[in-house]
Protein: Citrate synthase
Amino acid sequence: KTGMFTFDPGFLATAACESSITFIDGDLGQLYYRGYPIEQLAEHSDFLESCYLLLNGELPTAEQFAEFNRKIMRHNMLNDQIMSFFKGFRRDAHPMAVMVGVVGALSAFYHDSLDINDAHHREVSAHRLIAKVPNIAAQAYRYNKGLPFSYPKNGLTYSENFLHMMFSTPCEEYKVNKVLAKALDRIFILHADHEQNASTSTVRLAGSSGANPFACIAAGIACLWGPSHGGANEAVLKMLDEIGSVENVPAFMEGVKAKTHKLMGFGHRVYKNFDPRAKIMKETCDEVLNELGLRDDPKFQLAMKLEEIALSDPYFIERKLYPNVDFYSGIVLSAIGIPVSMFTPIFALARTVGWISHWTEMISDPGMKIGRPRQLYTGSVRRDYAQVADRK
Ligand code: SDX
Structure:
């Protein structure tokens, strides 16, 4: 509409919706949140400010940000009854199963008092989700480890508070390493939104029926869990463990070409030259490993070797397969001390703001209609019922 972007008719035919939140150019490797390049936000912004931008469409003034921060902090505790839901899970339940269940259960606490046609109710729901999902993720980790539940500590930044909730114990306060917290904050920014990806489309489709936002975000978490989507960062670390050493890379690559397995963390439905987030993630990986004296981390060395080989191999070049955001994020999270099982919950934590921004944009549109994708029917033509005796 602003004349900035022109789309070919073929593209328009596939467009699921109109949105003003995030712009991606897959050929140029461009990603903008509300018009701001991801590279600039990763360098100059922080995650909570980027949340404000995605939700409201503009960067906040100092006063607006202070008020937003206060609102988020006001909602970051969990109703004490919510804590009982964690105990219904086996200790070894995957944290994503816990997040789907507990985020969905938030509906039971807010559904009856929530009118999604009221802009204030929508705003409070967005604040509640942005504030509570990190707490739920951290308690899922602690429950899995048999640790007592923890509480947010206001006055810390959003990312510092998440690390505090994850790792502090009653006996010992977690000393936040500012470099690591900043790296985690950047991971949150990079994963915050990404246009109409599978999980965001899930949230939009669920929300188009008028379902409450907590249930819609739980649906998005469920979709994100898959290894082709948000589960890829966990799959990358498992892949690196499976390969083991650089010597095994050629054999592994042969298996990829024979299609017995994929190179996890590579490829993308939209980016066909490079994922701008992967470049920033690789730099962040470098910073974190330098900070921790892990420059020679074998996993990082192996990942860089895999990338080098893949980028020079015609099989990958012909198929336009490049590292995506998930290729290096797992190595950074590992180095920070976050277990592999928490990688996708962290992706879900970051993407919550994107999901709820798209939900808000859609629900705020008075012309919104329920989504109803159609199909190309490939089944049997009309036929009459056959009695059992006549069947073969
Ligand atoms: C995310 O949509 C988003 O925006 C998602 C996301 C977000 O922020 O929300 O960016 C986050 O989900 C990133 C992607 C994370 N997933 C992975 O890293 C898993 C590994 N990658 C793939 O499974 C795959 O690349 C997809 C699912 C991401 C894309 O799959 P497509 O659409 O099938 O890829 P394509 O059409 O470009 O494939 C072209 C060819 C095919 O081979 P041929 O049939 O031509 O012989 O490349 C092959 C594919 O089989 N291929 C791969 C591959 N990805 C595609 N071969 C080996 N390894 C891979 N990773």
The longest strand covers residues 22-25.
